[in-house]
Amino acid sequence: MSTAHILTFPALLMLLYIPSSDPVTVTTSKAKVEVHENTNAVLSCEFKTEKETNPRVEWKKRGKDVSYVYFDGDFTGPFKGRASIDGATMTLRGVTQKDSGAYHCEVTARQDKIKLGEVTVTLTVLVPPHAPSCEVPETVMRGFSAELRCKDKLSIPAATYSWYKDNKPLHIGSLPEINYTLDPKTGTLKFKAVSKSDEGQYRCEASNGVGAPKSCAGQHMKITEFELNMTIVIAIEVGAFLLLLSCCVAICLCCRRGCCRCCRKNKGETKQRTKTNYNPPDHLLNGIKS
């Protein structure tokens, strides 16, 4: 065997055992990001390539449709002018609720064996409570049911609710003296049958742990007794009299025209009695005899 062959054979073995470089890989240091509204959000994206020295970086947001956030070296749409990128890590400034969603970082390395790598980062923008909308009935009759409603549609995560009567919290429970039910998730306060003691000023408070709780303005609920005033009594009496008078007039007209069987029968009997009981005068009878 020649010297050249002896020298090249070990070299070939060494080449076979040299580990190959890893293909393009894309990772994130934080897959779920939660930030408060109107603050900055950092979406981490890190990559390693095998050979490519100038990979292509793109960011997309997925929802009902896929839209570009960062494309061809620039930010697009609503992100233009309020975002920056360092390597592949993206920072969004002054985020709002509309920015919440799933973002995809894609890195393309054309010279690598595996040319595409991607990672997903989910952004949740936390929104503190807003003053909830409250519905409180102005007047409820004693013994009737009542329902008070409260809702804050803007807070993230969803708010939970508590009710106050005359600035005192209403408790949730099944105590004997409690005649209502309160659902802290829906904000609904229900009374099965209100009493005079339920009268007062009610307000609802929304909280979600992000910011300070917010309340709606207090609204007064009045409990009334069922009372008949003279106007209602007179109106009922007049209505009853007119109804009775109408019935009498209708019966009289019906009898006069013989519209009903009873009236026709009575009328026929009257005629028959008249015909049967008729007695002619004596002078007529004498004239007939002569």
UniProtKB/TrEMBL annotation:
Keywords: Membrane, Signal, Transmembrane, Transmembrane helix. The keyword Endoplasmic reticulum does not apply. Residues 23-122, 129-224 form the Ig-like domain. Residues 1-23 form the signal peptide. Residues 271-290 are annotated as: Disordered. Coiled coil: none annotated. The chain crosses the membrane at residues 232-255. Gene3D superfamilies: Immunoglobulins. The keyword Nucleotidyltransferase does not apply. GO terms for cellular component: cell surface; plasma membrane; protein complex involved in cell adhesion; tight junction. GO terms for biological process: leukocyte cell-cell adhesion. PANTHER family: JUNCTIONAL ADHESION MOLECULE 2 PRECURSOR, JUNCTIONAL ADHESION MOLECULE B. This is Ig-like domain-containing protein. It comes from Cirrhinus molitorella (mud carp).
